[in-house]
Prior knowledge:
The chain is an all-alpha fold. The protein has a domain at 33-77. Helices cover 84% and strands 0% of the residues.
Amino acid sequence: xxxxxxxxxxxxxxxxxxxxxxxxxxxxxxxxxxxxxxxxxxxxxxxxxxxxxxxxxxxxxxxxxxxxxxxxxxxxx
Length: 77
């Protein structure tokens, strides 16, 4: 079935799930890099410096992922 033949409501749900996956990736990037920073803090004894830096790096990376994905989706239309 081509995209033109697909039910518009189903197409909307599919796109909604794609954006929900982006939101989960954003949260995962913040938590993942924050946890990595927490581990580095444990090795260097500098809590919470690297955990905060890691959370900001993860947030920036997650935001850029969303930014480029939405830009690609809007350019396609």
